[in-house]
Structures are given as structure tokens and as C-alpha cells.
Specification:
Blueprint: E1 3-12, E2 15-25, E3 30-34, H1 41-48, E4 56-61, E5 64-65, H2 71-77, E6 79-82, H3 94-101, H4 110-120, H5 122-126, H6 137-149, E7 155-159, H7 167-182, E8 186-190, H8 194-200, E9 203-208, E10 211-217, H9 218-223, H10 225-231
Parallel strand pairs: 3-8, 3-9, 6-7, 7-8
Antiparallel strand pairs: 1-2, 1-4, 4-5, 9-10
């Protein structure tokens, strides 16, 4: 086990967004978190990455309690967060966005890693000096995932990476996620496209109104009649 939350509760004022939520991530595992809009999925990722403070409960990463730490500390420890909405830095170039992803690093390999991503994703290489705000939605999503990977995380938090993308681009983004998983990065994926998420995941949790209501291996959830009716369109 590389990561867990235990009895995590998060509130917005008087509203409880997460209630006694417990999950476990195994090293190298791709775990998907499914649920309707407003179920608390984004709240969980923001709490893990230090953007929100829990009311109670523990967040443990590699045996260390990290709840309440500042986001920069959490990134330096090895947890990177790709927020929903493709938050590329629009007035910076593709190259500058990637360089920004490595701001916590002081090693000599940053430029080599940038070139690695340019070799791996030729469309980014073609646009290396272009402002990120001028990229297509799919290219921006590709960029923010690569930017997060520039910090060399042990855990990657992905929030709705397919949101607003055309179907062919969605397939491309999921292929990128699958490759990252195969290379050994532990991933926690929040995704509205439940079927595609379960197809590439090892395990899935289902969240309803801030509580985990089901957990199983991804293939079992994919075959579950209740999951099909509620999340997979019948």
C-alpha cells in the first residue's frame, strides 16, 4: 500500500462533501473513482493535494500522515494533481508549461525530460514555442498531463481528463493514461466516462453523496448490472 485515506470528512461550511471516506491505493495500481456530479470526487482530489483541509480523518502516503500539509509540500513528496478543466498556463508556451511542471526539481535532468515528452508527443514538439492557450482541447490535456509528470510523481491524480473532448481525442487521452500506468505510476482517476475508465483500471470505487458505496476490481464493476444501470447507460 502506497496511499490511503481513513474516515476522511470534508465540509464546505455546514455542507458535508465527504463523509468517513476510506480508500486504499496500491503501488503501481490504476484506481478509478466513479460517481455522479456533486458526489465529492473533485473534493477528494483537492483534499489529497492540500487544496482543501479535512474536518477529520487521516491521509497517509508512504507511511506519513499528510493531511493539512501545503500543496507544494505534497507535490515535493511525490503526489501530482491534474485538475479538471485543462488548467494549462495560457500565456506561457508549451515549453514553459513543461518547465513549470519541474519547478520543485533541482536536478540536471529537466531539459532531458522535456525533450523526452517532445519525442513521445510530436504534436507538443511542433508547438513548443506556441502559447498554450492557442492549443486545441486535446493538446492542452496532453500538455497538463505531461506537465504533472515533469515533477516525477509517484502518484498522479487525474480529474476528468476527457471532459469536453471529441470521442477520437478521448481515446487518445486514455491511451496516454494507460501507458503512464504501464510504466509504473500509481494513478487515481476521476472520470465521467465510466466505461472507458473501468476498462483501463485495476480497481474502482463508487461514490454517492460523499460516501463510498461500492469497491471492487474494475472488471467486476464493469460487469455489474447495478453499475451498468447507474453509470454505464444500461
Amino acid at each position: 500500500m502506497i496511499f490511503s485515506t481513513q474516515d476522511l470528512t470534508v465540509k464546505y461550511g455546514q455542507i458535508t462533501a465527504l463523509r468517513d471516506l476510506s480508500i486504499i491505493l496500491e503501488s503501481g495500481e490504476l484506481t478509478t473513482l466513479l460517481g455522479a456530479n456533486g458526489a465529492g470526487k473533485t473534493t477528494l482530489l483537492k483534499t489529497i493535494s492540500g487544496l482543501l483541509k479535512p474536518t477529520k480523518g487521516c491521509i497517509t502516503y508512504q507511511g506519513v500522515n499528510i493531511e493539512g500539509l501545503q500543496p507544494d509540500r505534497i507535490i515535493k513528496m511525490g503526489i501530482a494533481h491534474c485538475p479538471e478543466g485543462r488548467k494549462a498556463l495560457p500565456r506561457q508556451t508549451v515549453y514553459e508549461n513543461l518547465k513549470m511542471g519541474a519547478y520543485i526539481r533541482n536536478d540536471s535532468g529537466v531539459e532531458k525530460d522535456i525533450e523526452y515528452f517532445f519525442e513521445r508527443f510530436p504534436r507538443l514538439a511542433e508547438r513548443r514555442d506556441q502559447l498554450a492557450g492557442h492549443l486545441s482541447g486535446g493538446e492542452q490535456q496532453m500538455l497538463v498531463i505531461c506537465r504533472a509528470l515533469m515533477s516525477k510523481p509517484k502518484i498522479l491524480l487525474l480529474d476528468e481528463p476527457s471532459m469536453g473532448l471529441a470521442p477520437l481525442v478521448v481515446k487518445e487521452v486514455f491511451e496516454i493514461i494507460r501507458q503512464i500506468h504501464e510504466e509504473g505510476t500509481t494513478i487515481l482517476l476521476v472520470e465521467q466516462n465510466a466505461k472507458m475508465a473501468l476498462k483501463i483500471a485495476d480497481k474502482g470505487y463508487i461514490l454517492e453523496v460523499g460516501k463510498i458505496v461500492a469497491v471492487d476490481d474494475a472488471q467486476s464493476l464493469l460487469k455489474s448490472k447495478a453499475v451498468q444501470e447507474s453509470y454505464l447507460g444500461g
